[in-house]
Design brief:
Blueprint: E1 2-5, H1 15-28, H2 36-42, H3 47-54, H4 64-77, H5 87-96, E2 100-108, H6 109-118, E3 127-131, H7 140-149, E4 157-161, H8 164-173, E5 177-180, H9 187-190, E6 196-198, H10 201-210
Parallel strand pairs: 1-2, 1-4, 2-3, 4-5, 5-6
Helix pairs in contact: 1-4, 7-8
Length: 213
């Protein structure tokens, strides 16, 4: 069995960091600021659409300018972002039961590895797959390469994430998905998808411990 983990928002609680960084950029452009509820209801992939919904005008500045500004701010503030509660406990449980775990993330590869090491959880993952282009629109192509590298879908594979895009990736791979609605998108935005949606990581822990699927 293989678990494909999303990282940002699923294992790492970086939502407030993302909001704070974006609010710096919005203030500079005299645009309305974000709060948690608004953020979790409008955040989406591709992120270009998210920026447009915030009021960014790409006729005034190309998308690349705010996109790279956000990455610089995010990198500086990310050390303050904690792991979600029960993350290490769940990763350790899967590890102890010889379940292979891999990371599929929209974070840049080298920075992703550094962050996993800083958070003390790198040891749990057999593979780590991050992006090489901050402007990439999604993770499906990366996911297909990852599936091929771990032996295809002949084995049982689950994807665990926190966004509609994670569900779309799982659909594209033809594998089941669990979403945890404590990250970048709200339960309301996720609840009607054709997959199991949990409110928080503790519920995943309870499912694991009771042996339910």
């Amino acid at each position: 069995m293989v678990i494909i983990w999303d990282f940002n928002g699923t294992l790492l609680n970086d939502m407030q960091v993302c909001i704070d960084c974006m609010n710096v950029m919005l203030k500079e452009r005299k645009l309305p600021s974000l709060d948690i509820d608004r953020y979790r209801n409008i955040f989406t992939f591709p992120v270009r659409e998210y920026y447009l919904s915030l009021g960014f005008d790409f006729a005034l500045e190309p998308f690349e300018i705010p996109a790279h500004q956000f990455i610089d701010l995010y990198r500086n503030h990310l050390p303050s972002a904690p792991l979600h509660s029960y993350t290490t406990e769940i990763l350790d449980y899967f590890h102890q039961h010889n379940i292979k775990q891999v990371i599929l993330s929209a974070m840049e590869q080298d920075f992703l590895i550094k962050t996993l090491e800083q958070k003390g959880i790198m040891k749990y993952f057999d593979r780590v797959c991050g992006i090489t282009n901050h402007l990439a629109d999604g993770k499906l192509d990366m996911a297909k390469e990852l599936i091929g590298s771990i032996g295809g879908t002949d084995q049982e594979i689950w994807l665990i994430g926190d966004t509609v895009h994670d569900f779309e990736v799982a659909q594209g791979l033809g594998i089941p998905c669990i979403l945890i609605a404590q990250g970048h998108q709200s339960f309301v935005k996720l609840k009607d998808l054709d997959c199991l949606v949990l409110n928080e990581m503790e519920e995943l822990k309870q499912l694991i411990l009771t042996g339910k699927n």
